[in-house]
Specification:
heterodimer; A: about 220 residues; Rossmann fold; six-stranded mixed β-sheet; four-stranded antiparallel β-sheet; about 30% helix; about 30% strand; globular; B: about 375 residues; alpha+beta; 2 domains; ten-stranded mixed β-sheet; 12 helices; about 55% helix
């Protein structure tokens, strides 16, 4: 796939939830796309539907209306098992709380998404990725032996292990101090070009906006910009 | 290759092992429950097996015997020579040993004396096992004496004993009180020496090949000599007694195993609880696994493997401890501690282990299924 080609495309996506106070419309007719080699930041106040949108893009949640296309394929009607396969091979996740498994070493955490693929050995790639994010000397450390910034870099390496087409980052700098956040953002920017992936980040951190190619603002579940 | 390298090939097993290592106290306590369950099942089962073996040993010499004596409606007191002939013609695959009984007091020069039963037989070898000397097939002149009696009275092989004003030389010592038989102190003499002049025999013992043919012989003799109103001969065999004892022991064994199983059921409920708690605690983590593309079946296998590890660990520790218990039980009940490694006993250890693993995996099913099917977006919220 050539650079600039659309990886994910949301068309007229609406997501409604049933809650105690009736139906909540988290997303209303959202159109969105992210292309290879670009970093898109989704901003908006809390409750604006940013997380819901990221979950829909990440195939963790399905829209009530509208379609989701991944690399040109409509995945809206995919079963949970099919969505799992897509997440495994196309999408990488970076979470605000890092979400590393405490009983695994840094290398094992990076290998985690491919751990059950016993026919391919991703150890070399895991070590290579950790070296690229500057953790070549922390390969056998467990998460509690790493700083917040180091943990997030392990998480970034984990997101890349299966050579995804898109990396989704939910408040990637939210739990980091400003300097550490900066290095993480430089890391993300570098991999955007080196790995030729699309990056979609959700944040209310202005610092992040400076590194992005495009900003999409969500207000009350609608794209406002 | 180290153990971890081996586990690495089975990602579910590796992850499960690491997860169990995170909360060692909880893992140890859950395992302890299984250990207790396995010990309960295996040691109770082995106790039953030891009892059974002991009963078999004690009954063993008697179960192939058919005992015949005078019937309630017989004109004579005992078995007549004619009846003996008939018995011998009916029994083809057994040894027929007629006997006469009496009692006497043996005394020594030093003044010790002891009351003994006197049995007159022709074929002493068939009925008695000697601890010293020999029991001749044709007992014509000598005497056999129970070894306890001999040592009480200070008698040895070659010494004379007196009965009915005649002297008999002791040719062999027999083991006393092996099993349910008459037991006690017994002096065995040639048949003609006892109750001389009687035409009848007090009893006839038939030694069959085994318990089943003893039962068959007893049935044939019943049909031959007796009918509903007229019991000429009283026929009894111990084969049915052993069957009764076996049945009782089987029931006892089942009851013991039942009690043991309850503790393993309790242990598996504890595992269910532990697994459920740990999957609820790790909900967010399992959500991450699902988000990064770990399949539902893989999450399921990982959690099932955790439960299986608890069962296997508990089963191994419990099995080893059970063998320890079994060594003591067999030493006390059966007198031979090594019998614990025989299949009748060892199968309870194997069974306890299997039950432990099975119950644990079963207990892991629901937590595993629940965790695997939790929608990732819900799970990620923790």
């Amino acid at each position: 796939m050539a650079p600039g080609v659309t990886v994910v495309q949301l068309t007229n996506v609406t997501k409604r939830y049933q809650s105690g106070e009736g139906t909540i419309e988290a997303l209303s007719g959202v159109d969105f796309h992210a292309d290879r080699g670009e970093m898109v930041t989704v901003i908006g106040p809390s409750g604006s539907g940013k997380s819901t949108m990221l979950n829909v893009i990440g195939l963790l949640d399905t829209p009530t209306e509208g379609t989701v296309q991944l690399k040109g394929t409509d995945v809206t009607e995919f079963t949970e098992d099919e969505l799992t396969e897509e997440r495994r091979s196309v999408i990488g996740f970076v979470f605000q709380d890092f979400h590393l498994l405490p009983m695994l070493t840094a290398t094992e955490n990076v290998e985690l998404p491919s751990m059950w693929d016993t026919d391919v050995d991703r150890r070399d790639r895991a070590v290579d990725l950790l070296q690229r994010v500057g953790l070549g000397d922390r390969l056998e450390h467990t998460p509690d032996e790493l700083s917040g910034g180091q943990r997030q870099r392990v998480a970034i390496a984990r997101a890349l292990i299966n050579e995804p087409d898109i990396v989704l980052a939910d408040e990637p700098t939210g739990n980091l101090d400003r300097d550490t956040g900066e290095t993480i953002l430089e890391e993300l920017t570098a991999l955007k070009t080196n790995e030729d992936v699309a990056i979609v980040a959700v944040t209310h951190d202005d610092q992040l906006v400076a590194y992005t190619d495009r900003v999409v603002e969500l207000v009350d579940g609608e794209v406002s910009s | 290759m180290s153990g971890t390298d081996f586990l690495w090939r089975f990602p579910s097993a590796k992850m499960a092992w690491r997860n169990l290592g995170r909360n060692r106290i909880r893992t140890a306590l859950a395992t302890l429950g299984v250990v207790i369950g396995v010990i309960a099942i295996a040691s109770l089962g082995m106790t039953g097996a030891a009892l059974q073996q002991q009963a078999d040993t004690n009954l063993g010499s008697l179960t192939n015997e058919v005992s015949v004596s005078g019937g309630a409606d017989s004109d004579v007191d005992g078995v007549t020579a004619a009846q003996l002939d008939d018995i011998e013609s009916v029994v083809v695959d057994g040894t027929v040993v007629p006997q006469r009984s009496d009692a006497t007091t043996l005394s020594t020069r030093s003044g010790d004396s002891q009351r003994v039963t006197v049995t007159g037989v022709t074929d002493a070898a068939a009925l008695y096992e000697t601890s010293a000397g020999q029991a001749p097939e044709r007992l014509r002149t000598g005497a056999l004496l129970t070894d306890d009696t001999a040592s009480d009275l200070g008698l040895e092989i070659g010494d004379p004993v007196e009965y009915d004003d005649r002297l008999y030389r002791i040719v062999g010592l027999i083991e006393s009180d092996s099993g349910f038989g008459p037991g006690g102190s017994e002096l065995v003499l040639p048949i003609d020496a006892v109750a001389e002049g009687d035409a009848e025999y007090d009893s006839v013992t038939i030694l069959a090949e085994d318990g089943a043919s003893a039962t068959a012989i007893a049935d044939t003799l019943e049909a031959e000599f007796n009918d509903e109103d007229d019991e000429e001969l009283s026929v009894s065999s111990f084969a049915s007694a052993q069957e009764d004892v076996d049945n009782f022991l089987n029931t006892l064994n089942l009851a013991l195993l039942g009690i043991g199983s309850i503790s393993l059921v309790v242990a598996s409920v504890a595992i269910l609880n532990v697994m459920l708690m740990s999957t609820v605690e790790r909900r967010g983590e399992i959500g991450v696994l699902r988000a990064v593309g770990i399949r539902r079946g893989e999450v399921l296998r990982m959690i099932l493997a955790e439960a299986a590890f608890l069962g296997v660990l508990g089963g191994i520790v419990g099995g080893v401890l059970s063998i320890g218990v079994g060594l003591v039980v067999f030493d006390v009940l059966a007198g031979d501690r090594l019998l614990v490694f025989g299949w009748p006993s060892a199968r309870y250890v194997v069974g306890g282990f299997g039950f432990a693993v099975g119950a644990s995996v079963l207990s892991g099913l629901y937590p595993a299924w629940k965790a695997a099917n939790d929608p990732p977006v819900e799970a990620l919220r923790g």
